[in-house]
Write a structure and sequence with these properties.
Distance between the termini: 40 Å
Helix content: 25-40%
Radius of gyration: 22 Å
Strand content: 15-25%
Oligomer: single chain
Strand order of the largest sheet: 3-6-2-1-9-11-12-10
Structural class: alpha/beta
Length: 401
């Protein structure tokens, strides 16, 4: 007997037929004598629909606290419907909201971080031999206010439960049957991987691959939770994400793109010591996550600093910079949201020269200009015009894989 944590995304429970499909997948494992905890996202486009409803009331959206109150309703609908389906099929089940399942978070509304999972309720329900359905993406802060974990937060919820409960396996069900070397819906030659390391998966997730949330992979690595990414619609083996994987001949494990990018340039900064610290320290106070950074060579006592953030944080970044205008004394701010980040990831590139030049050659052959470059031991990212995103991914993928 094993304890299995399963997570199903919004597309997996988008309608009644799919809800019953998920219910049967859960019951199959339960009938084998396993204990099963299931984390569920909001149905289909429910979250986007709720955001649209908020904008009908207030075009800027409500306060972050009230947005959390609104958005958390989506998962409440999903867990209740799934529990009803399992009840109809004749099996013991209970649905729990995030706070009922013991999720304690910080108070950063709309992007909260999990501080603790109190497992007492989960253990009690499992001991009663119930299938436990948990609302992903949400928790409760110290003021007893509902919080949400941000996009992809249900993945993180599932991994957190698996870690806290010391589960034997954490399965993440999606609309694809595993992790591919590129998006198989866009790149026909994309290859499915049997396994991938935490580090490689973390880079791919951070760089735009939408199979897993990057925070969930980071948590899985920290607590050594073995993940399996598999299809909710087909019964077949998926991709295992774990610490050590078999050596592969290929240098590159995957190519990813991220369209959720804004490029911000701060023009005419004083070319003096400490100016970069002041700028990025203020951005950190506004909880803005910075990705690629480029600083120009100083000229006439000034310099420019350009950096990228997610588009949904660009307004916060600009607000932080405007609050510092008297201190930074820059000339102006430029924001460009018509860009995209394309990246390659692979542990093999660290010990093999020429990977970067091969990637740049692929983009050159495709007639695509590079605006910014960022590298680490296992990844290379470039910023390009967003309209070339898909062609860039295909060109780079065909060059390596």
């Amino acid at each position: 007997m094993a304890l299995i944590v399963k997570k199903f995304g919004g597309s997996s429970v988008a309608n009644a037929e799919r809800v019953f499909n998920v219910a049967n997948r859960i019951i199959d494992d339960y009938k084998k004598g396993n204990d099963v905890i299931v984390v569920v996202s909001a149905q289909g486009d429910t979250t986007d629909d709720l955001i649209d409803k908020a904008k009908e009331i207030n075009e800027k959206g409500g306060s972050k606290r009230e947005m959390d109150m609104l958005l958390s309703a989506g998962e409440q609908i999903s867990i209740a419907l799934l529990a009803m389906a399992i009840e109809k099929l004749g099996y013991p089940v209970i649905s729990l909201l995030g706070w009922q399942a013991g999720f304690e978070t910080d108070s950063h509304h709309t992007f909260a971080r999990i501080k603790k999972v109190n497992t007492e309720r989960l253990k009690n329900e499992i001991e009663k031999k119930k299938i436990v359905i948990v609302a992903g993406f949400q928790g409760l802060n110290r003021y007893d206010d509902i919080t949400t974990l941000g996009r992809g937060g249900s993945d993180t919820s599932a991994v957190a439960i698996a870690a806290a409960m010391k589960a034997d396996l954490c399965q993440i069900y999606t609309d694809v049957d595993g992790v591919y070397s590129a998006d198989p819906r866009k790149v026909k030659t994309a290859q499915k991987m049997d396994e991938i390391s935490y580090d490689e998966m973390l880079e791919l997730a951070t760089l735009g691959a939408q199979v897993l949330n990057n925070r969930s992979v980071e948590m899985a690595k920290k607590y050594n939770v073995e993940l399996e990414v598999l299809s909710s619609l087909e019964v077949k083996p998926g991709t295992i994400v774990k610490e050590k994987v078999k050596m592969e001949k290929t240098l590159i494990r995957g190519v990813a793109k991220d369209n959720n990018v804004a490029c911000i340039s701060v023009v005419g900064l004083e070319d003096t010591p400490g100016i970069a610290f002041k700028l990025f320290n203020k951005l950190s106070q506004y909880k803005v996550n910075i990705d690629i950074i480029l600083q120009s060579v100083g000229r006439d006592g000034t310099k420019d600093i350009t950096f990228t953030v997610s588009r949904d944080q660009s307004a916060d970044a600009v607000a932080a910079l405007e609050a510092m205008k008297d201190i930074l004394t820059y000339k102006n701010i430029k924001v460009d949201e018509s860009v995209c980040k394309v990246s390659i990831v692979g542990a093999g590139m660290e010990s093999n020269p020429g990977v970067a030049s091969k990637m740049f050659e692929a983009l050159y052959d495709a007639g695509i200009n590079i605006q910014m470059i960022s590298t680490s031991e296992i990844k290379i990212s470039v910023l390009i015009d967003a309209k070339y995103a898909d062609s860039a991914v295909s060109a780079v993928h065909d060059k390596f894989i």
